[in-house]
Structures are given as structure tokens and as C-alpha cells.
Amino acid sequence: MALETLDYRKSALLVIDLQNAFIHEEGTLGVSGVDTKRLSSIVPPLAKLIERCQDTGIPVIWTMQEHFAIDHNRARKKLLGHTARRKRVSALAGTWDEQIIDELKDLADFDPAFVIRKHRFGAFYETRLEMMLKMLGTQHLFVTGATTNACVETSIREAYLRDLDVIAVDDCISGVNADWEATAKQVWKQYFCEIAPSSEVLDWIGEQVKPRVTNYGHQLIMVDDIDTSVDFYTNLLGFTIRPAKPLADGRPFTAFHQGIALIHGKTREHRQLDHIAFEVNDVRAMDAKLKKAGVRYYTDLHDGPYGLTIYIADPDGTKVELYQVGATA
Q1: Could you tell me which residues are beta bridge partners of residue 13?
Q2: Can you tell me whether residue 291 is helix, strand or coil?
Q3: Cα dihedral value 97, 103, 104, 106, nearest 10
Q4: What are the CA-CA distances from residue 14 to residues 3, 66, 106, 130 (Å)?
Q5: Could you tell me which InterPro entries the record lists for this protein (predicted)?
Q6: What's the CATH number for 3-208?
Q7: Is the distance from CB of 22 to CB of 90 less than 8 angstroms?
Q8: Rounded to whole angstroms, what are the CA distances from 227 to 153, 167, 270, 272?
Q9: Mean pLDDT of the chain, nearest integer
Q10: If DSSP codes are grouped into helix, strand and coil, which group holds residue 299?
Q11: Is the distance from CB of 47 to CB of 103 less than 8 angstroms?
Q12: Domain with CATH 3.10.180.10 in the chain
């Protein structure tokens, strides 16, 4: 699977219903005869993955299933629902059964705003999850939790139907029946998501956070007459001007949404290209790496127009700007 095509800054981890009701041997599933050892086996690798995501800044979103002792909506049904097939209604509001298991409770408390209560199988159904993911800029959703054929599968289908990239983390998902689970995962892989072990996801995170260039920024071109050049690019080629802060050295310039920027000051002895720019994920680590390699610098770390910035020389002397959005000196 090509995890390398994904961006950790556009990713989130979804942890579904790691509650006493479904994981603890004294919870509702346990007292109803379900093998909770099978369900709880996902806790160690899941805890490791959650901690890594939280350390890296990948949002970890938790769902808590919650039921009421009296549910008038469900009571209208003529056929028995799944709750009637257990010894009691699971995860009743305000009970121990509803709580996140002790092994993960501290991790769930890391950011209480990321805990979502739901009243049916799906993590998206009549919850705030969809809007939260939009606000976080999430495109890639890593799904974990219990149980495979109920809440996890429903949530995977819901995520897929919202055009998210869905990755089911294999050893961090468990259900009540091994045969059902195997069949479910075959269907998922065919239609709804990719499946990867947590070890592969951890390796992917490790590669993602290494100091590296993440995006092309812009190319700054020196011109004889900036007004004439701006007119050429806007009126003849249809470029659109992008608002931008002044350069650190105070020179006026015009930036375009199409990826280049123009600056006045071309002279006979200068090349037309002033510099090219790239966004990086960790400019301080990149700075240390480049200095260790003996790379020549034009300008050391400083607050540039797009974030914390360095200007270096490539082997041919071309000026390269490297910046990290949101970082400051």
C-alpha cells in the first residue's frame, strides 16, 4: 500500500468505542458471553500508535457510544434491535460501562475536545465528526477500535462515502467473531479502504516527520520593468495576483497564484532567476542538517514572509528559499 502518497498533516486517527462495555471482561459484552480477551488484544499496539500520533501532532479523535435506559426512538421498532441480544443495554449514560478503559483513559484526556459521543453505530451519524474533520483539514482517516462488524465497519463506510482516504489499522481493530471479521476485511479492501498494520503506520509517520521539502513554494523572477511584466502575466496570460507580505529585505514584488513572483531589479550581470522557494516540514531540523553538510548560506534563520526561513545555495549557486509555515524565530 502506498502510504507514502499521504500527508501526515492532513491525517487523523479515529479510535472507536474503547469503552468498558466492549473491552473489559466485566463490561456488557463480557457478561453477555463475548470473548473480551480477543477484543482487548488491540490495546497495546493501539496505545503505542495513539502516543506516536499525539507526539507528532496528528489529531486523535475518540468516539464513545452512549445509550439511554429508555430510548423512545428505538422503542418504536417492531423487530428486536441488537441491544436486546445482550444481557443489558451497553454503555448507559453516566455508568462505568460507558467509560474509556483505564489503559487508555489518560490518552483520551489528552484533548477532551476530540472526544465525540455517539448514539448509534456510525461515528459520523448525527455527530460533529464530519465538521471537525473539515476544520482540521483531514483528508486521510486512520480507523481503529471495536467492534469490527458494527461500529468500525459502519464508520469506515461512512468515511468512504464522504470521500476521505480511509486506512483500517489491522491489529488495532477487533470484533466478536473471527470469521465475520475476516469476511469484513475482504469487503473493506475491495470497496472502502486500505488495510495496514500499525507497524507500517508507525514507519510511515517516522518518514513523514523527517526534515524534508513538502511542497513547491514559488519562483522569484527579476524583471526590467515590473509594471510591464505584471501587465503581461495578468492581462495576457490570465495570472491572478496573490496577496503577499514584503520580502525581508524590503524589496517590493508581485506574487501570483500560479506559482511565480516578479521583482524589479534585473541587471546585465544578474541571472533572471532570483530564487526558488519550497515549504519544509521542520525548518530548524533542516537547518541543522544543511549546516552539518557544509551547505553555503545566503541568509540564516529569520522570519520571512511565509514563516521561519533560510536561504541557501544549491551546488550551482542558485538561491533556494526553505520556509516552514507557522514557525517563527
Answers
A1: 60, 142
A2: helix
A3: 110
A4: 17, 17, 16, 12
A5: Glyas_Bleomycin-R_OHBP_Dase, Glyas_Fos-R_dOase_dom, Isochorismatase-like_dom, Isochorismatase-like_hydrls, Isochorismatase-like_sf, VOC_core
A6: 3.40.50.850
A7: yes
A8: 58, 50, 20, 16
A9: 92
A10: strand
A11: yes
A12: 213-324
Is 213-324 assigned to CATH 3.40.50.300?
Answer: no
Tell me the whole-structure pTM to 2 decimals. 0.85
How far apart CA 161 and CA 117 sit, in angstroms, is: 21
Q: Which three cell numbers stand for residue 303?
A: 522570519
Cα–Cα distance for residue pair 181/190, rounded to 1 Å: 14
Q: For the chain, give every residue range classified as CATH 3.40.50.850.
A: 3-208
d(CA 229, CA 22): 66
Q: How far is CA 48 from CA 11, 85, 169, 171, 202, in A?
A: 17, 33, 13, 12, 9
Predicted confidence (pLDDT) per residue in 263-320, tens digit:
887 767 666 788 889 999 999 999 999 999 999 999 999 999 889 999 998 877 888 8
Place of cell 513572483: 261
CA distance 173 to 43: 9
